[in-house]
Design brief:
Layout lengths: L1 E6 L6 H11 L5 E7 L9 H32 L8 H7 L4 E2 L7 H9 L4 E4 L8 H4 L6 E5 L7 E2 L2 H7 L4 E8 L9 E8 L6 H26 L14 E2 L4 H9 L6
Parallel strand pairs: 1-2, 1-4, 2-3, 4-5, 6-9
Antiparallel strand pairs: 5-7, 7-8
Helix pairs in contact: 1-3, 1-7, 6-8
Length: about 260
C-alpha cells in the first residue's frame, strides 16, 4: 500500500512523530512522498504566540528552535543520530519532499494518481482538504488529532485540556471529510494528564509516544481491510480556536506553563 503525507514545517513534535511512525508502520505500507506546506511558522503569527507563551515561554521556545535549526544543519553536513526538522525526518527515511501551493489543485491530484497513492495521511496539514482530494486515493484520507474526538475539535487541543482542568486527553486517528476534525473514528488512545505537565510535555507524550503508534495501527487496519470505525458525533462535539486572553489566564492560574 502506498502512502502520501500532508504536513507542515516543525522542529519539536512532527519530526519525532514521523520518525517513530516510520519505525512502527507495517513494512508493506510504503511512504512514496510528503507535501510540506506553509503552516504555523510565520511572522504574522508571532504576536498571538507571544501573548500565549509569555516572555519566558517565548525565549525558551526560541532558544530550542535555534538549537534544532543548528542541529538540523549539522545533520545535513555530517549526519547525526536524531531528527530536528520535518525535512530532516523525510531525509532520514528517504521520503521525497514536495511543496504544492494547494493540495486541492487538479495537478496535485493527478500527481497522486500517477504515484499510485492508496492512502493520504494528514499530520497537522494546514490546508482544508476538499472533496476531490478526499475521494482521490482509493482508501481515503486520514488525520491524526491531539484529543479524544468529538471533544476538543479545533486548534491547540493540548492547551485547552490543560486550561480546562481535564484529567485525561488523548489522540484520535479518523477518516477526514470536509468538516473540521469530523469523520469516522478509527483509533483512539487515552493519555493521562500529569500534575507537572507543561504544554510542551503533554504534546510530546500524546503526539509522539501515543500518536505515532495510533497512526501506525490505523494504517495496519486499513491495509488489512479490518477497520471498525466508531461515530464522531456532531452532537457531542466541542470546538476551540486560538486561545483568548481569559483562557490564557485560566491556563496560568492552574499553574500550567508552556515549557
Amino acid at each position: 500500500m502506498n502512502l502520501f503525507l500532508l504536513t507542515q514545517p516543525d522542529a519539536f513534535y512532527i519530526p519525532k512523530l514521523l520518525d517513530r511512525f516510520m519505525q512502527e508502520k507495517p513494512n508493506s505500507a510504503r511512504v512514496v512522498g510528503a507535501a510540506v506546506l506553509k503552516g504555523e511558522i510565520a511572522l504574522g503569527n508571532v504576536p498571538d504566540y507571544l501573548r500565549l507563551m509569555g516572555v519566558r515561554g517565548t525565549v525558551l521556545n526560541g532558544l530550542d528552535f535555534a538549537r534544532h535549526k543548528g542541529l538540523d544543519l549539522l545533520d545535513r553536513v555530517v549526519g547525526l543520530n536524531g531528527v530536528y526538522s520535518v525535512r530532516g525526518a523525510l531525509r532520514s527515511h528517504n521520503i521525497p519532499e514536495h511543496t504544492p501551493e494547494n493540495v486541492n489543485d487538479a495537478a496535485f491530484l493527478n500527481f497522486l494518481c500517477e504515484q499510485n497513492v492508496d492512502l493520504v495521511v494528514s499530520i497537522a496539514c494546514p490546508q482544508i482538504v476538499r472533496e476531490d482530494l478526499l475521494h482521490c486515493p482509493p482508501k481515503g484520507v486520514i488525520n491524526i488529532h491531539g484529543a479524544l474526538l468529538p471533544k476538543y475539535r479545533g486548534k491547540l487541543p493540548s492547551f485547552w485540556v490543560l486550561a480546562n482542568g481535564e484529567e485525561k486527553t488523548g489522540v484520535t486517528v479518523h477518516y477526514m471529510n470536509e468538516e473540521l476534525d469530523d469523520g469516522p473514528i478509527i483509533i483512539q488512545k487515552e493519555v493521562p494528564i500529569r500534575p507537572g505537565d507543561t504544554l510542551h510535555s503533554l504534546v510530546l507524550r500524546s503526539k509522539v509516544q501515543f500518536g505515532a503508534s495510533a497512526l501506525a495501527e490505523a494504517v495496519q487496519q486499513i491495509e488489512s481491510g479490518r477497520v471498525r470505525t466508531t461515530e464522531n458525533s456532531e452532537e457531542e462535539a466541542t470546538y476551540f480556536s486560538f486561545p483568548p486572553q481569559d483562557a490564557i489566564d485560566r491556563f496560568r492560574d492552574r499553574g500550567r506553563r508552556i515549557r
